[in-house]
Amino acid sequence: HSMKCKIIDMRWMAPIDTEALMKELAGDKSVLIVDECRKTGSWSEWMAAAIVENIDPLPKIKIVTADDCFIPLGQAAAAGLPSRDEIVQASLMLTNRV
Question: Which of 41, 82, 84, 93 has the fewest CB atoms within 10 Å of its CB?
């Protein structure tokens, strides 16, 4: 299956131009937010709220984040991060392919 998507790498947008970002997302049917931070109190929560407040009609939104847990050290540091499989599954769910 093929899938057309737009990728916006937010790591390089600082400070974030909210107006420009919302203009870029306007008209998209779905938005997948992938965040290495925890589910609670993270950047992805801000982005979802900004989309809800600023975009009409509202796209479907799915968030894939790290687990809400303690911050692991050493080799375990990546244990709670979103995996490739989680991202692919979320993308397929947004496009009703699952």
Answer: 84
Please count the other Cβ atoms lying within 10 Å of the Cβ belonging to residue 78.
11
Are the beta carbons of 39 and 66 closer than 8 angstroms? yes
What type of residue sits at position 17?
Answer: D
The answer, yes or no, to whether residue 4 has pLDDT greater than 70, is yes
pLDDT of residue 15: 86
* Whether 72 contacts 40, CB under 8 Å: no
Upstream peptide bond of 59 is cis (omega within 30 degrees of 0): no
Spell out where 24-87 has E strands: 30-38, 60-66
* Distance between CA atoms of residues 60 and 90, nearest Å: 11
Per-residue pLDDT reduced to its tens digit, 17-47: 999 999 999 999 999 999 888 788 888 999 9
